[in-house]
Structure formats: structure tokens, C-alpha cells
Amino acid sequence: MSQNTDALLILAGLAAGPLIGGFVTGLDRIVTARCQSRIGPPLLQPFYDVAKLLSKEPLVVNIWQVFCAYAYLAAASISLVLFGLRSDLLLILFIQAVGAVFLVVGAYSSGSPFSQVGAHRELLQMLCYEPLLILVTVGIYLQTGSFRVPRVFAGEKPLLFHLPLLFLALLCALTIKLRKSPFDLSTSHHAHQELVKGLLTDYSGPFLALVEIGHWYEVVLMLGLCSLFWATSWEGMVALVGISYFLEILIDNTCARLNWRWMLTSVLAFGLTLSLFNLVWLTMH
Amino acid sequence: MEEIVAVLIVLPLLSATACLLFKAEALRSWIIVATGLALILTSLLLTAHVPFTYSPPMVFRTTLHEFIQIPDFVLMLAILVFGCRERSKTVICLASLQIVLVTWLELFQIQGVPASQAINCDHLTLIMVLIISIVGSIICFQAIPYMKNHEAHQQLVRSRQPRFFFIMLAFLGIMNGMVLANDLTVFHFFFECTTLCSFLLIRHDGTPDAVRNGVRALWMNTFGCVAFVVAMIVIHHRMGTLDLQEIIRTRPSEGLPLLGLALLSLAAFTKSAQFPFQSWLLGAMVAPTPVSALLHSSTMVKVGVYLVVRLAPAMQGTFLSQCVALFGAVSFLAGAALAVGQSNGKKVLAYSTISNLGLIFACAGLNTPEALTAATILIVFHALVKALLFLCVGAIEQTIESRDIEDMRGLYSRMPTTAVITVMGVIMMIMPPFGLVLGKWMAFEAAARTVPVIVIVAVGSALTVMYWARWAGTLMSDPFAGSFRIERQPALTLGALMALIVAAGGLSVAVPWLVQWLLILPGESGHVPAFLSEGGVLENAAGVFAVVPLSAVAIAGLLHGLWALRRARGARVVPPYLSGIQTGAPQIFIGPMQRLVKAEARNYYLTSLFGEKRLTGWVNLAAALLLILMLGSTL
Amino acid sequence: MAVMFKKIFARARSKSPWLLHFNCGSCNGCDIEVLACLTPVYDVERFGIINVGNPMHADVLLVTGTVNPRNKRVLRNLYEQMPHPKAVVAVGSCGLTGGIFREAYNVVGGVNKVIPVDVYVPGCPARPEAIIDGVIFAMKKLGEVKPCRER
Questions:
Q1: How close A153 gets to chain B, by Cα (Å)?
Q2: What's the gap in Å between the CA of B337 and the closest CA on chain A?
Q3: How many domains in chain B?
Q4: Closest residue, chain A, to C86 (C-alpha)
Q5: Which residues share a beta bridge with C120?
Q6: How close A57 gets to chain C, by Cα (Å)?
Q7: I want to staple A61 with a disulfide (CB 3.0 to 4.6 A). Which of A110, B196, B446, C9 is the partner?
């Protein structure tokens, strides 16, 4: 019986990424457009984009890009599936990092200066958000006693009350993960050119579609991580996720892109300080 | 089992002498291969007999302890002589001090008859013996073609290989003896032997650089030996025994014995090149690569972590243990930060070794069953993967004659096999489901309750990913859509690399069974493993790591990726985007005045933040302060 | 089944044309009008149009300006780096035939002398509405189920 539920959960996780991720991205673009007094694309636009990319002729700069694009998609989808299977949060983070590294190696392999600089910036971004995500999971562990997802749902008060500073650190990391200004240094979404397209310059056609779908999986995973902070009621969860995402869009539209030094000092220093205070407070109680 | 122990220790010494005496190259190669295979087999046979403790019977009415006293003095005198020859005051001082202290210990304290079992083999020792025998032998196999090539490059008239392989093989026997030793004096003898071996191998090439770095290694390691002897004096004074098992059972919690444990930890830190003693390991990278692989990543530097992991049950619950944990964490972070600022390939590997050893020390300091399991797993997988990476860098260095990562840019087009194997090695260092990340996962879960340690380790882990991904990317950085051509490598080199990859990969999948059957930690009675392993999934109260399912998915993903690669062969190849001014040749574009320009990129080394010159001073200061805190807290 | 997928892909292609805007020596009049299309007044993102800067991501190549011998090469390179199926829109009278600069010594005279053009948008400068019309025309061409691969 549990094997059947496991199989169903795996399928749900695999399907949730593209479906929910695509809708969230579409909603993102509409809200962004409205913020800029435009009308914006239709809600299903990201699906049209991905379908169009899949139908294009495959172009290759270095054949290993293909491998790296598939590896990125695989890692992102596996991490979301594991999240759906209520597995260990730390393990999920490690697996998600696999995809990011493959994306960087794929960008390096094309040899164009735009990709190379984009790859370096992506590594610096990873340097900024990874410690924060790890410390958020440590905070969840210290509060609930386990790294596994189900224990979060067993609490009485939402995690947000116990881990407020860690939630702020998570939002900082989320800004980087979702590729929003001011931290969309390595590559940006939808027509915000960054060194042409930074990391993704030499990916094209079907392989770019795979990377885009992988990004959707990551978006859903990050929003899932946010949702753990109000696990006591469905309405609260949706409200929290909605408000955080809207905050990200707002920051994206109001801030200009800044350089990596600023990102290192602000995100890493600020985020680590917040996390440290929260964690110390947790261990003392 | 006495025969097994004898074979493990004595056979390599005999083969080493044979290598020194018989100068014929083919004969030497056969001796090395035969010894290596014999060692591998014997160490596997040892698995069936573990655990056991015994003292070898008296030979000519002397015990093992007395038997080694004369060689011990000869060794210390040899170090003194080398110090005089190199005119190094530090070595002379430290060596003389050591002779005086050992004489004091033998004459006034031990007075002849020790009351300890000389040899003890439990699961931790077994793991070390397996690493030394298997990884060490594989490295020696690869050293045969490497040294031949090396000497051809140097155009030597008289080959120095007999001496080289004498020391390499003898070293294997010495290491086996050290991890099997239970008596601290025997341990100290082998400890010193490794110091001398390291010195001789670092200065093997005879260049002024090599000699200088050899002397630096000598005095730093001798400093460690001195600390070791002082520890022995202090422990024997209070506890009356130098038997390791006895010391661990007694669990000193305060006073002089605890100071003794702290001094032993200090000796371990020196041997493992932790900060502020890291300069000897960095300097040792001038040695031929098999030396770096064997001594300075897989085996000799593991002695330090082995000693602290073994002593961990004795330090449980003390402030000393917490100091060791914090020190290890700081070392992990500092090593990773310094590696980010390095462009010399072997130095990156050296800093990475220091960093990983710091993590193992941190686990040993945290001193919970999960942490100690993590430490053991990290020891195993780090030895395998680091040896693999060093051997790859050795092969690369001999072809392109440079160690700089920038010169390895686009290596895939020149040496596809080696580049892919190196990238696989890097993948095994930083990605799940391989063993090193499993060890890191266990370490994080163990450290999660100790806030300073987990914060430091989290940042260090992110830095680690950065420098490894950068290197892997640089190797593949060449627009190359052509077909894969296997470059020509000597059979022993390729065989050694393949063996290490298969071993690391296979062991990664087999980790759940490893944890269940092999990782019975020292000092545990009534073995309850820290992690339950069921159906290939490792679990405990806090977390779960599905090793076998994830490995299956990873293999499926790999096969799918390779199939996609084959399918994409029909795709149109375009040059990378260069704003439309590209020409047909790769990376060449039409620049100003219609001249052809090559597009070049270099890696970010961020030397203004992470450079050696900038960070080393601060890191050494922090480490020295922590060490003073550690030693002072025991008084 | 395959036909259904082809139909879906064709519809997706017509609903998501990504632009690459290249200026081949224009006076910037047409370029300003192109950029005006991206502003909230005209808002081409309603049609799914995104101005990407990279030929490898683009479906539609929007070319303004006469072509001169120097950027003839560049135009050719960019066109070749675009994956099929693609469309080219020549904007402004300079792009059509060279405009008033047609007889200058350094002017090749019209984009279709270098690469095959699908849609011609006249005007000097072409109005944003005309440009949008032209791109939509190109979208319809892209949306054919069996797009022409070789030209």
C-alpha cells in the first residue's frame, strides 16, 4: 500500500514541477507587467515558450552541454520528488546543488566569455545562498527535532514564530535562487539581459527548454521550503507563500542589479548574522 | 593472524630492500606489483580475524618494545644528522630535545618492562589497514610509469628509482605497523619513521626548492614528535601505562593525563598539516606526484585523524573535545577559503586535503556516534578520491608540463580520458550519492546542535563546491562537438585510475552495509550503530539518506544523459556566441582594424578576498589562539 | 499522435516569438520605434514577444538599417546562429532597399541581399503599429505546421 502511495507521490512530484512552476512563472510575469503598467502575456505563456523551444532545431556548441542540461533537469526534479516523498531536507539541498554545479560546468564548456563570466557569477551566487539554506534546515531541525519534512507538520505553532530571522534569511536566498534583481547576476529571466544571457547564452532550443523546466522545479521546491514555515493551516501556508513571492516580485521591480561584491557582503554577512542570532536563540530555549 | 600482521608489516620492508639492492628495472616493477597484490590480499584476509589484541612473542628474549629501542635511537640520530647536514638550527634543536626526552622516558619512567599489549586491531584499524594496503599499492603501481617518465624528463644519468621505491614500499609497512600498534612507544617509533620518509621523499628531486621544503617538513613533523614524547611522559607519569586501549578505557577527565591527550592531539594536528602547521604540506607539493598522493593525502596525513578518532572516546564530554571540534571546523573553512584563491592545481588539492581533514577532526571533536561514523566514512572516501585526483593531476602534469589550472583549460580536447576521469573525481568529491557527501551529510547532522561549528562548516562547504566546480568546468572548457578519442596512457596508469574510480563508486553504493558490518567504533561495547541501514537506506531519528535508490537513479540518469549525447550528435554545431563577429576558427573573432583576436577568459581567483597572502596570517593567528586555548584548558 | 504534437508545437511557435533586434547601420530612427514597442504604450509582451539579445534563443530576426560590407558578415553570422524555424523581418525603407542611402558607396542596399527576408515593413521610420503588424505576420509564418527548414 505504501509502495503505491510512494509511486503516486513520485508521479505527483514529477508533474507538479512543470505544472505549478509554469503557472507560478506565468503569474509572475503578469504581476510584473501590471507593476509596470502593462498588460502582460497570457497566463499560459511559459508553457508556450517551453513548447516552442522544444520544437526548435537543436544547436550545440559543446556536446557536453546536452548532458549538463539533462543532469540539471534530473537533479531539480529528483529534489522536488524527494520533497514530495517527505524525505530529509539536507539531502534535498545536496541533490539540488548537483544540478546547479552541472549547469555551471555546462556553461564553462562552451568557451564563450559571456558564459564563462556567467558561470563564475553563478558560483558566487551559490556561495551566497547555500550556507543560508543549510542553516534554515538546521533551524528547522533544532525546532522540530528532525530534518525530515513530516515532523514540521506535527508542530502546534507555525515555524514562522520560532524562526522569524531564519525566514528573512530564506527570503534573501530565495531572491538569488529565483533569479530576481538585485541578485540576478549570472542569468536573468525574461528579457532582463545580463551579459547577453550569462550562464545560459550558449544553450538553445530543446536544451534551453530543459533548463527552463528545471528552473520551474527549483522554484516549486523553494516555495515548498517557504510553505514549511506555516504548516499548521492550508490558508496560512498559501497566504505566506503568496506574500513572500509578491515581495520578491516587488523587490525585483524596484531594485537594480548590483555587483557580486555587494551580493557577498549583503547576503552572506547579513544572512549569516540573522541565522546566527536565530540559531543561538533556539539553542538557548 | 600473527602471520597476517607479520606479512602486513614485514613484507613491504623486505620488498623495499630488494628494490634497493636489485637495480634491474623490470625486476623492480615485478617486485612492486607482487608486493602490492600480496598486501591487498592480506589486508582483505585480515577482515575475517578482527577484532583481536596480542603481543608478539619474545624474539631473542626481547619484547617488541625493547626491540625497537635501538632503531628508535638510530632514527633520532639520523634526523639530527640530516639537520646538521642541512644546517637547520630548528631541526637540530628539536631532534636533540627529542633524544633527551626519549632517553628520560626510557630510563627513568618505563624502566624496561612495559605492561601493554603491543598490537591491537579493531575495526578502525582494519579500515586504515585496508586504505593503506589497497590505495597505497595502487599508487605504487601508478608510480612505476610515472617515475620512468619523470626521470626521462630530468635526463638523469643514474636512476634514483631504487631509492625512491625503497622508501615508498617501506612506508607502506611502516604505516601498517603504526595503525596496528597499541603501545604508544611503538606508535611513536613508526610516527618518526614516517617523518623521515616524508623528508627523504620531498627532497627526492634534489633541487634547492625541494631540499628547503623537505627541511621544513622535517622540523614541523619533529615538533609534532616532540609533543608526542612529552605527552607520553605526562601520561605515563600519572597513569603508569602507555597502552592505548587502557588509556581509552580509563577516560581521564582532568589533570595531567588530559594534558597528555591534548598534546597527542597537537602532534596529530602537526602530522595532518592543520593550521598553523600547513606550510609543510604546501611545500611538499614539489615532490613527485605519487609521493603527494601516497603520503600527503591518502595515508600519512591520515595518521593524525586516525589518532584523534581513536582517542575520541577518551575525550568524551570534556572541554578539550569541544576545542578540537571548533579547531577542526575553523580549519575546514580556512582550507576551503585558501583553496578558492589558488590557481596551482596541486596546491588546491593540498588545501582541500587540509580542509577535509579539518572536517574529520571536527567530527571527532563532536564525539557522538553519528559524528564518529561520519569521521570514519570521510576518512575512507577522502583517501580514495584524493588519491585519484592526485594521480590524475600527475598524469596531466606530465603531458602538459604545468600544474596551473589555467593551463588545463580545455584539456578535454587534448586528453579526453584523463579529463573525464578528473571530472568524475571532482563529482565524487562534491555530489551525492557518493561517499564523501554522505559523510558530509552525517557530519552536518551531527554538528547541527553545536551552532558555531555548523555555521562555520556550512560556509566552508559552499566554498568547497565553488573551487571544485571551477576546476571541473575549466577542464571541459573548449567548444568541442567532435567524437571522443581515447588518448594513449600507460596501462598501469589507466588501470590505477580505473581501479580507484570503481572502488570509490562501488563503496559509495555499498555504504549502508559498510556502516552495519564494518563501522564498529572504538570503545563501543554492545554495538548499536548510529545509523540503521535497511534495504540500502541509511536512517536515524533525525534524517534519512536513501543511498541505494539514489545511486540507482543516478546510474539511470547517467545512462540517459549518455544516450541523449549520442542522439545529439546529429545536431548542428555552431560556434559560441561572440556578438556575430566570430570566424570559423574556435574562439577567434574579428577585432579592431580587422585583426583576428582570440577570445580569452580566466577564472576568478578572488585573490583580494581569498588570496594566500591575505588570509594566511589571520588564519594562523586564529588557529594558534585556539590551540593555546585547547592546551590551556586542560591545565 | 505525432500530428497532434506538431500542431501543438506550431501553435506554441506562433504564440511565443522571441526577437533578436539587430541594427545594420540604421540612423536609429527605426530602432527607437522598435524600442517603443516594448514600452507600456504598445506592450508587445501581450503577444509573447521578448527581446532576447542572443541569436541562439531567437525566432525572429528584426533588422533595421541598410547593410554595409562590414556588418554584412555579422548579419550572416547572426542569421546562421539562429536555430530553425526562423523568420526575418526587415524594418524601414533602409532595410527594404537601402532607402535614401541606396546609392552610397558603402551601402549594400537592403537586407534581402544578404539573408532571405520573410516580412518587409516599410516606413521611414516605420511606425510601432506597423512593426508589430510585421512581427505578427512573421509569427503566422512560424506557426505553419510544416515550416520550411532550408532556404
A1: 15
A2: 11
A3: 1
A4: A56
A5: C90
A6: 5
A7: A110
Radius of gyration of chain B (CA): 25
pLDDT tens-place string over residues B111-167 = 655 556 778 888 888 899 999 999 999 999 999 999 998 988 888 778 888 899 999
Measured between beta carbons, the chain A residues lying within 8 angstroms of B466 are 123-124, 126-127
Looking at the domain assignment, is residue B385 inside a domain?
yes
- Position B443 scores a pLDDT of 94
Domain span holding position A278 = 3-284
CB count within 10 Å of CB C29 equals: 16
Taking any CB pair shorter than 8 Å as contact, residues of chain C touching chain A are 8-13, 15-16, 40, 43, 45-48, 50-54, 56-57, 59, 81, 83-85, 149
- Give the gap in angstroms from C-alpha A132 to the nearest C-alpha of chain C: 32
Q: Is residue B539 part of a domain?
A: no
Per-residue pLDDT tens over the stretch A257-274: 888 999 998 899 999 999
Closest alpha carbon within chain B to A130: B462
Per the document, the length of chain B is: 635
Phi/psi of residue B319, each to 5°?
-65, -30
Q: Which residue among A78, A117, A130 places its CB closest to the CB of B553? A: A78
More confident residue, B587 or B215: B215
Determine the residue type at B622: A
Q: C45 and A40: CB-CB below 8 Å?
A: yes
Over residues B565-592, mean pLDDT: 85
pLDDT, tens only, B77-123? 999 998 888 888 888 899 999 888 888 888 776 665 555 677 888 88
Q: Is A59 on the interface with C (CB under 8 A)?
A: yes
B264 inside domain: no
The DSSP letter of residue B478 is: S
Beta bridge partners of residue C121, listed in sequence order: C91
pLDDT at B481 over 70: no
CA distance linking residue B622 with residue B604, whole number of Å: 26
* Mutation for testing the C interface, residue in B573, B578, B579, B589 having most C CBs under 10 Å: B579
A112 min Cα distance to partner chain B (Å): 6
Partners of residue B572 in chain A, C-beta under 8 Å? 57-60
pLDDT of residue C82: 92
Disruptive mutation site among C81, C84, C149 for chain B (greatest number of B CBs within 10 Å) = C81
pLDDT of C151: 39
Structural domain count of chain A: 1
Mean pLDDT, chain B, as a whole number?
87
Can you tell me the distance from the alpha carbon of B485 to that of B180, in angstroms, rounded to the nearest whole number? 46
Mean pLDDT of B28-45: 91
Question: Can you tell me the distance from the alpha carbon of B137 to that of B34, in angstroms, rounded to the nearest whole number?
Answer: 10
CA C10 to each of CA A42, B493, C52, C148: distance values in angstroms, whole numbers, following the listed order = 17, 53, 20, 12
For residue B191, name the pLDDT band (cuts at 50, 70, 90).
very high
Cβ <8 Å between C54 and B577: yes
Percentage of chain C exceeding pLDDT 90: 50
Distance of residue C49 Cα from the nearest chain B Cα, in angstroms: 21
- Optimal mutation site among C21, C77, C78, C86, interface B, most CBs of chain B within 10 A: C77
Nearest CB to B577 within list C73, C81, C83: C81
Structural domain containing residue B330 = 316-508+588-635
- Which residues in chain A touch residue C139, judged by CB atoms under 8 angstroms apart? none
Alpha helices in chain A (DSSP H): 2-35, 45-54, 64-84, 89-108, 113-144, 149-153, 159-162, 164-177, 205-227, 234-254, 260-263, 271-284
The answer to whether position B43 is within a domain reads: no
Which chain B residue has the Cα nearest residue A139?
B448
Q: Which of A25-39, B307-321, B515-529, B554-568 has the lowest mean pLDDT?
A: B515-529
Rounded alpha-carbon distances, angstroms, from residue B623 to B273, B318, B324, B328:
12, 20, 11, 10
The one-letter code for the residue type at A99 is G
pLDDT at B490 over 90: no
B483 — pLDDT class (breaks 50, 70, 90): low
